[in-house]
Every structure is written in structure tokens, then in C-alpha cells.
Design brief:
This protein is of the alpha/beta class. Helices cover 40% and strands 19% of the residues. The strands form two sheets. Strands 5-2-1-6-7 form a five-stranded parallel sheet, with helices on both faces. Helix 4 links the parallel strand 6 and strand 7.
């Protein structure tokens, strides 16, 4: 049996309305290559401080609040991603929801899991980010594998 062009595809997704357009392309590419498919959605951590105008820096009064808030966000993301997993025909174990800086988490996952194609949406609209957007741009320039930036339809 001939080895496929891609062995492990990673869909880096946001939880927004444009994901069905990207999802369709991912399905087609996965069916074509028969590659393993993983999905990642990164939750950015909540800042430890609040910059409040005339109030200056206001520290997070209770660190347990931010931890519980992150857990709530993680559970909500998991619930939002379950239908995507079903639609893509993958198990929930293939859904990954790390907490951290988006591009760093995606790149670290891709490298550690030997991903050879990252698929992400692209919807930047300003200056140098006109074609990609900041996250897609960071992934493109930092990845050690191929990157497919799917233009999101407005």
C-alpha cells in the first residue's frame, strides 16, 4: 500500500460560524489522504491583572476564580466541539483543548504529535495580516510542517 502524502492532519479551530466552510475542506482532504485527524482549540488564559483606566492595575483578587473560569471555558469548548468531532467522524479523544498562547500551543502539539499538515482558518483584514491574520501567520512561520490556511467566507 502506497504511503499517503499526509499521515496526521491537525485542524486548529476557533468556535465561530465560519468553521463549517473549513470543516468541509478538512473532511474532503482527510478522506483523500486517509490521514489521522486531530482537532485543537486553544483557550487563552485570563490575565492575572485588569488594566482599569484611571484605576491603573487591579490585581486578580482571587486566583481560584480564574482557575474555575478556565475550567468552565474548557467544558463549554468541549461541548461546542463534540458535534464537530461527530461530523468529522473522529472520537472525542482526538479533540484537544489546551490552555495557553494560541499559536504556541498549536505548534507544540503539532511537533509533539508528528503532525504533517496544520489546517487553520484565515480572516485577517489589516495591513500585513490582510491574507492571514495573526494566529495563522504565526503558525505559518513557526510550523515545521505544511500549513493550509483556508480563507474564511464572510
Amino acid at each position: 500500500m502506497e504511503k499517503s502524502m499526509y499521515q496526521h492532519i491537525l485542524l486548529a479551530t476557533e468556535l465561530n460560524n465560519t468553521k463549517s466552510h473549513i470543516e468541509n475542506k478538512v473532511k474532503e482532504l482527510q478522506q483523500l489522504t486517509k490521514a489521522k485527524l486531530s482537532v485543537i482549540h486553544v483557550i487563552e488564559p485570563i490575565p492575572e491583572v485588569y488594566y482599569g483606566g484611571i484605576y491603573g492595575v487591579v490585581p486578580n483578587l482571587d486566583a481560584t476564580d480564574s482557575v474555575s473560569t478556565l475550567r468552565i471555558l474548557e467544558e463549554r469548548a468541549k461541548e461546542q466541539l463534540k458535534p464537530l468531532a461527530k461530523s468529522l467522524g473522529i472520537k472525542e479523544q482526538s479533540l484537544h483543548i489546551p490552555i495557553g498562547r494560541i499559536s504556541e500551543e498549536i505548534l507544540a502539539f503539532a511537533e509533539s504529535k508528528k503532525v504533517d499538515l496544520i489546517i487553520t482558518g484565515s480572516h485577517g483584514v489589516h495591513g500585513l495580516q490582510l491574507l492571514l491574520g495573526s494566529t495563522a501567520n504565526a503558525i505559518l512561520h513557526g510550523a515545521k510542517c505544511d500549513v493550509l490556511a483556508v480563507r474564511c467566507r464572510e
